[in-house]
Amino acid sequence: MTVFVIAMESEAAAVLENMQTEKSYVCCDKKVVCGKLCGRQTAAVICGVGKVNAACGAQYAIDVLGADKIINIGVAGGLNGQTQVCGIYAISHAVQYDFDLVQLNGTKRGTLDECAEPYIPLRTAGAYPLRRIGSGDRFNDDPADYALLTKELGADIRDMECAAIAQACMHAGAELYAFKAISDVAGSGSTTEQFMKNLKACNGALKAAVPAIFEGVCNA
Asked: Which contiguous run of DSSP H or E holds residue 75?
């Protein structure tokens, strides 16, 4: 089954408003909604913000709901001119930019202990432009983080969940597809102000895109 793992209620609305809900419950403080989308059985796990929440939500989707494919959708921040506000991008690779074993392993920042390189590849579907994402447990305008993400890791987008879901899926053998709507772009003013201003429009764009995204992933 294909299951959505989404951080926030506001982001999940893009899926739930397209879904015929059959049941809803809370497990481990995470809301789970089951139903049908485009005539297919599916579910959405609203996991909460941050990498630990995201990994827990993905593992629940895999172990309890039987997900063999996971879709992570939501809003995210753009890092360069390759992203536009309210544009939707498919994620080709994900890295945890705040993971650092440089002193211990001598590996590049973002490289998990069980990996040889920073980025984990994702599956892709549909005709959306492909971009690379960096995930970390920080929402800020820190120049050091921006330099790490862009100059060292070459990321195009940043969020707080995708790469953690990628790690869980990698170990469980599940496929991960991710699609992000850009709520803010670095260098265009406060990311917080941009995020608040553009959130509604981004979620509207995701709502319109969800049926095609879901069908594309299911048929991939």
From this structure: strand 69-78
The partner residues of 69 in beta bridges, in order of sequence, read 2, 175
Question: 3-class SS at 41?
Answer: strand
Q: What's the chain's average pLDDT?
A: 96
Phi, psi dihedral angles at 40 (to 5 degrees): -110, 145
| Tokens 């209620």 found at | 9
Mind listing the pLDDT tens digit for each residue in 101-111? 999 999 999 99
* Helix extents (H) in the chain: 9-16, 51-63, 102-105, 143-147, 162-172, 191-219
* Number of domains observed in the structure of the chain: 1
pLDDT of residue 187: 84
| Euclidean distance between CA atoms 48 and 56, whole angstroms | 10
| CATH number for position 173 | 3.40.50.1580
pTM over 0.85: yes
Q: Could you tell me the residue range of the domain that residue 41 belongs to?
A: 2-219
> In Å, how far are 5, 26, 48, 58, 215 from 174, measured between CA atoms?
13, 23, 20, 10, 17
* Residue 195 predicted with pLDDT over 90: no
Question: What is the spatial distance between Cα 98 and Cα 80, in angstroms, rounded to a whole number?
Answer: 19
